[in-house]
Amino acid sequence: MHTGAKSQTFLRTVSQLLAMTAYTATVTVRLKTGVLDPEAETTQRALERLGFELESLRSADRFEIDLEADSKEAAAERVEEMAERLLANPTIHDYDVEVEER
Amino acid sequence: MHTGAKSQTFLRTVSQLLAMTAYTATVTVRLKTGVLDPEAETTQRALERLGFELESLRSADRFEIDLEADSKEAAAERVEEMAERLLANPTIHDYDVEVEER
Question: Residues of the signal sequence (chains A, B) (predicted)?
C-alpha cells in the first residue's frame, strides 16, 4: 500500500476514535410475567420467615456495560444486540436498555 | 376483653390498614469495587468472542418488592433492613434502594 494511502487510513482511524464518546449502558433482564421465578419465591419466603411483611417480590439481572460509540443511538443498538444474542433469553425474558454518557 | 375494647382494637387496625399506601421498592445489589466478579468476566469474554467491543461489564442483582407502608420513608426503612439482613452481604456488596408509590 502506498505510504500516502497508509497514512490516510491511519488518520481516518484516529479521527474515528477521537469522534467516539464513552457511554455506560444498563441492561435490566426480567422474567416475563407468568414465568415461574423460584429464586424470587424462595427469597420472599425467607424474608417472611424473618418477620418482614411484603406482598410480592421479583428478581432481575442487571448488566452495566462501559463502551465507546459514535452516538447514544449506536451504543443502544449495540447493547440491544448483546441482549438479544447473549444477556437475555427472548423466550422467557424481557429486557430494557438505558444509555448514559460517561 | 370487653366488647367495647374489642371493637376499639378492630377499628384501630382497620384505620391503620386504610392509612397504608402501596409502594414498589427496588433494591440493586452490586459487588463492591475491587471484589472479583467472575460472572461479569465470563459474560464479557463471551460477548467479545461474539465480536462485540466493550470496555468493561459489571453485573448486579435487582429485587423489586411490592409492599404496603405508612409512608415512603417507612417503606424505604423496611426494605433497607431486608437488604441488611438477607438481600446483600455487607462484606462484599453495596446496595441502593429506590421507592415509588404504586
Answer: none
